Amino acid sequence: MRINLEEEVIMNQVELTVDGSAIGNPGPGGWCCILRCGDAERVLTGSHADTTNNRMELTAAIQGLRALSKKSIVKVMTDSQYVVRGMTQWAAGWKANGWIAASRRPVLNRDLWEELVDLAGQHEVQWVWIQGHNPHNKDQDRADRLAVAAARQRATGVHN
Asked: Could you give all domains of the chain from N- to C-terminal order, each with its CATH number?
């Protein structure tokens, strides 16, 4: 079989480090995602007035995947077991059960989970848990600092 190189799709390989923070949980929150593709880097941050830490963790992953302009191979790194387990263990079952959790209650943050599942389906995604507050992981440490800063800015009325 011959491969036509002009038709072969070469996908970007992206490392996406995400983190979220909330002051008060619920309270003012911030998120950050750091995208790396080769030597290129893009940092995105944002905040919300009244939210939870879990919503900010999900939002960081969503915003990172939204930032990709074409299908990519993405390694998402997060210190959130909630995000990793949700995407690798729970989301398929939730979706199959009409977004009802094992507790027979509606899935919390369903709006964000649905969007994240949809966005992840547009790429080849690997979900990786990394230890938080680890000075040896520069991107995770930086994402944490920027998410906390965004939450603090929102809390003081100065927000992005």
From this structure: 12-85+123-155 (3.30.420.10)
